[in-house]
Amino acid sequence: MLLTEMFLRVGASLRFWNGRRLLQLCGLLLLGGVLPTALHAQTFSVSPASINFGPVPVGGSSIVDVIVTNTSQITQQISQPSGPLDTKNFAYVTSCNHPLGPGESCDIEYYFNPTVPGVLSTTAPIDFGNGVFFTVSLSGGVPVPTAVPTLGEWSLALLVLLAGGLAIHRMGRRQP
Questions:
Q1: Is residue 100 part of a domain?
Q2: CA distances from 17 to 28, 36, 84, 85 (A)
Q3: How far is CA 124 from CA 24, 83, 109, 119, 139, in A?
Q4: CA angle, corner 47, sides to 45 and 53, nearest 5?
Q5: Are 72 and 88 part of one and the same domain?
Q6: pLDDT score, position 6
Q7: Are residues 16 and 51 in the same domain?
Q8: What is the pTM assigned to this prediction?
């Protein structure tokens, strides 16, 4: 009955014909209770799920591999390994453009090439098909330091203070 309940939940029908089971699912006819691949959930593992590239200065580069493994018992293909949403600072290259057998893996190389200072982050969705997505979080960069006056700025500030002090001193000498 568990098998029947499972089929009913996904909209399939279980019928009997001449004493043999006939499974009709989305127009596929299978005899003998063999489960169609349409019933197998697409299951993959993604590792790591989050990447911190660490401190990478503007003009620098860092690469991290993400491994995608087919953890199901059937051959499956990723519908679309997508790139990062921030394409100015992040990029990708993938070998996940072919079907993966049970236990097989492919990799997605994510690149971080910051074009602006600061800590940057984005996400990179992976479409496993049938509305199933996984999102890899990407971040990295060098924090922007707080503004510290330069020697030139300090010199200007000291010059203004000296000029102001000299002006006050002269004003004090003019009075009888």
A1: yes
A2: 15, 19, 51, 52
A3: 37, 5, 11, 17, 11
A4: 155
A5: yes
A6: 35
A7: no
A8: 0.60
Structure tokens at 11: 């909209």
**Are the beta carbons of 110 and 93 closer than 8 angstroms?**
no
DSSP states of 111-136:
EE--SSSEEEEEEEEEEEETTEEEEE
Listed in order, strand segments (DSSP E) in 18-114 are: 20-25, 28-31, 44-47, 50-52, 62-70, 80-81, 90-94, 105-112
Q: Is the peptide bond before 99 cis (omega within 30 degrees of 0)?
A: no
pLDDT tens readout for residues 24-50: 333 333 333 343 334 445 688 999 999
Task: Identify whether residues 53 and 18 lie together within a single domain.
Answer: no
Torsion of CA 107, 110, 111, 117, to 10 degrees: -160
- Using the Cα atoms of residue 99, residue 102, residue 104 and residue 107 in order, give the sign of their dihedral: positive
Place of tokens 């006939």: 22
